[in-house]
């Protein structure tokens, strides 16, 4: 079987289709990879400080407390101390 020396319009169309499919596959794999990385790098949204709901945090201080487990524990202790009669 001889290797063709000229490319025809049909060959170019096939190459274009294959190129688009390859790009589509690569984009899907990249999207899946980014989704998996994002899942593991995103802090859990279930963290809750005793004195406020972290999902409703607005100020920078509240966001900082919610993002840091040690600060959240300290907030719990402070809330318990002030809550005692």
Automatic annotation (TrEMBL):
Domain of life of the source? Bacteria
What protein does this entry describe?
Uncharacterized protein
User: In which organism is this protein found?
Assistant: Methylomonas albis
Q: What is the lineage of its organism?
A: Bacteria, Pseudomonadati, Pseudomonadota, Gammaproteobacteria, Methylococcales
């Amino acid at each position: 079987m001889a290797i063709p020396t000229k490319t025809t319009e049909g060959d170019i169309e096939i190459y274009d289709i294959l190129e688009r499919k390859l790009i589509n596959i690569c984009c899907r794999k990249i999207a899946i990879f980014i989704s998996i990385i994002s899942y593991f790098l995103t802090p859990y949204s279930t963290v809750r400080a005793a004195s406020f709901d972290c999902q409703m945090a607005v100020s920078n201080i509240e966001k900082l407390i919610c993002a840091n487990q040690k600060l959240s524990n300290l907030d719990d202790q402070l809330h318990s101390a002030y809550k005692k009669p």
